[in-house]
Amino acid sequence: MRKLVLYALIAFSLVSCRKRLDNFLFSNDNSITSYELDNYTGRTTLDVGDEYKIEDSMIHQFTIPMISEGKNLNVAAIYVGDIASISTDTVLLYCHGTADHMDFYWPRQKLYANLGGKHRFGILMIDYPGYGLSDGSPTEQNMYDAVNAGLNWLKENGLTKERLVLFGFSLGTSPTCQVAGNPSSFALEPGKIILEAPFASAEVMIEDAALLAMPSSYFVNIKIDNAEEIKKATVPLLWIHGEDDSFLNIHTHGEVVYKNYGGPSKKALRVPGGDHENTPFVMGYTNYLNELLLFIKS
Predict the structure, then answer these.
(1) CA distances from 59 to 105, 117, 257 (A)
(2) Domain-by-domain residue ranges, the chain?
(3) Predicted local distance difference test score (pLDDT) of residue 23
(4) Less CB within 10 Å around the terminal CB: N or C of the chain?
(5) pLDDT tens sequence across 285-298
(6) Within 10 A of 271 (CB to CB), how many other CB atoms are there?
(7) 47-87 per-position pLDDT tens digit
(8) CA-wise closest residue to 197 among 125, 136, 280
(9) Strand order in the sheet with 164-169
(10) Beta bridge partners of 241
């Protein structure tokens, strides 16, 4: 009886906080007036050393226009590399997680710009609508449209499929799985995909958070289902997940996505002791980058 009362209280709390649960997926911050990058004093995903520093001449901040859900929006973007060389370079499009904005993820972009040496690969990162300096408010659809705008920008600058690696972390695994599973709906198909700490679906995420086996639609409108979309992928996959991930459980999320992958080649990196954000640190940055490089070159 006590358990039934507890579940009823949890359900009431969740229903009364529907907006807060939507924000469970989109924890955006649009209060900034500029990206501070190395000068940012807020919290960040990782702490990387001076050896990963990027020359100012290789950092390009700009906006990409798009139309989504009937609205004209500008998406903030940061490209690290030589834009003039996109037509010959291999490029990673990094789809970041749910937190804050690109300053939070800047240390990761710096890491990836050091794959195989300084600026061997170009790295594009964007802020979804409602994040950082990007217009609008975040929704599932405009997140996909923002990633598509980034893909279109890369295509216009000469990038082709075989030189595109689409890298999704946490929330960013959703647009990555969407593109991989439905390439004809996007401007450019990736040659390979990387999923770090993917979630299986919005439903599983809400069930894990709520401790209730109730449909996510009861609490949120988001329909994300990476575990289904990944079944349609036809490009090689690298999956990375911390075994001690306290936000997206490796068993209920990552393992499900990895098992459902329907493409020709996949590799798993299960990281003992790794939590949600810190797998590169736990592995050691050099080891982490070497694994990425091996996958990209394979």
Answers:
(1) 14, 16, 34
(2) 2-297
(3) 53
(4) N
(5) 999 999 999 999 98
(6) 24
(7) 999 999 999 999 999 999 999 999 999 999 999 999 999 99
(8) 280
(9) 59-68, 71-80, 122-126, 91-95, 164-169, 192-196, 237-242, 266-271
(10) 270
Structure tokens belonging to residue 148: 């598509």
Among residues 198, 69, 88, the alpha carbon closest in space to that of 130 is found at 69
Which CATH architecture does the domain made up of 2-297 adopt? 3-Layer(aba) Sandwich (3.40)
**Which residue is it, tokens 């907006």?**
19
* CA–CA distance, 212 with 10 (Å, rounded to integer): 9
Its pTM stands at 0.87
Mean pLDDT, consecutive 10-residue segments, the chain of 298 residues? 38 42 73 96 94 96 95 97 96 95 97 94 97 94 96 97 96 95 95 94 58 43 79 96 92 94 94 96 97 95
Q: Which of 107, 109, 127, 160 is CA-nearest to residue 28?
A: 127
